[in-house]
């Protein structure tokens, strides 16, 4: 009895000290109440976070830069004149002299033959895409102090330091233009020959490129050979090296071989059809070899 009496006294004592039980100080049992709807805002969660009306509730996301009808940010400010017509400019993917030397050292390029755009594409390490306004390769001067090969190379763009690095070793460099149709044939000759169509003529440079490809300083393929010889000496004096004599070189024929301004492939004339299946060449009649 004494034990029950002590327990009752203790309970009465707690009731006297604890606050009065009211609706404001009681809470429901755990997990006894659950919400019927999810989300928030005025709809009570019946939109499931997808919003109202139109593309907002269909997950049809707007394109990048669209400002719901407002003038886009990139049109509210004037653009730099430098970028005017940038999508129409000719592009020249770079190849450094260091990359070229590595290709030669790993036997991907045979320097006993002239090197052109087809030779570079056949290495499998570089490529061009005429559809994205790529018109050939430009040779950069990275690794110019390590370049030691004597080559006859044709690229589409090269700086003065690159020309000096090649001519210092007794080589020859030439810059040449190819139109998009010619580039398609040059980048993959096998695919072009399998079509069974004649080799096309190379078109002349456009008006804004004639000055570059007729300049002897740039070693343009349309420049005067005598002017090129003079500028070879001028460049040797400027960079302080002795210009090797090509005339006394045993590889004179390889170093002086070049294409006609209308020609695409060495040894093949425009208008010829290459039959890979029968391994023969169908030559056209009445087409001049130097046209």
From TrEMBL:
GO MF annotations for this entry?
structural constituent of ribosome
Pfam families registered for this protein in UniProt: Ribosomal_L27A
Name its GO BP terms in alphabetical order: translation
Q: Which GO terms describe its cellular component?
A: mitochondrial large ribosomal subunit
Keywords attached to this entry: Ribonucleoprotein, Ribosomal protein
Residue segments, region Disordered: 18-59
Keyword Nucleotidyltransferase tagged: no
InterPro entries attached to this UniProt entry: Ribosomal_uL15/eL18, Ribosomal_uL15/eL18_sf, Ribosomal_uL15_bac-type
Stretches with biased composition (Basic and acidic residues): 34-49
Protein name per the record: Large ribosomal subunit protein uL15m
């Amino acid at each position: 009895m004494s034990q029950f009496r002590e327990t009752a006294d203790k309970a009465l004592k707690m009731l006297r000290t604890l606050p009065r039980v009211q609706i404001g100080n009681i809470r429901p049992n755990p997990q006894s109440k659950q919400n019927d709807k999810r989300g928030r805002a005025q709809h009570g969660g019946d939109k499931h976070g997808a919003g109202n009306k139109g593309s907002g509730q269909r997950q049809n996301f707007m394109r990048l830069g669209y400002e719901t009808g407002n003038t886009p940010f990139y049109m509210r400010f004037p653009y730099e004149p430098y970028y005017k017509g940038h999508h129409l400019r000719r592009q020249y993917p770079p190849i450094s002299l260091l990359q070229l030397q590595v290709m030669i050292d790993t036997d991907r390029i045979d320097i006993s033959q002239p090197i052109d755009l087809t030779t570079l594409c056949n290495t499998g390490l570089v490529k061009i895409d005429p559809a994205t306004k790529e018109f050939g390769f430009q040779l950069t001067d990275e690794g110019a102090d390590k370049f030691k090969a004597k080559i006859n190379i044709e690229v589409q763009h090269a700086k003065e330091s690159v020309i000096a690095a090649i001519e210092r070793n007794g080589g020859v460099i030439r810059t040449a233009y190819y139109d998009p149709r010619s580039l398609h044939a040059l980048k993959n000759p096998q695919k072009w020959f399998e079509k069974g169509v004649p080799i096309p003529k190379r078109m002349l440079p456009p008006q804004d490129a004639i000055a570059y490809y007729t300049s002897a300083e740039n070693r343009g393929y349309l420049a005067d050979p005598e002017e090129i010889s003079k500028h070879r000496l001028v460049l040797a004096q400027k960079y302080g090296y002795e210009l090797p004599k090509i005339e006394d070189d045993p590889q004179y024929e390889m170093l002086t071989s070049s294409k006609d301004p209308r020609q695409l492939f060495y040894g093949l004339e425009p208008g010829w059809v290459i039959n890979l299946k029968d391994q023969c060449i169908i030559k056209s009649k009445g087409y001049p070899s130097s046209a």
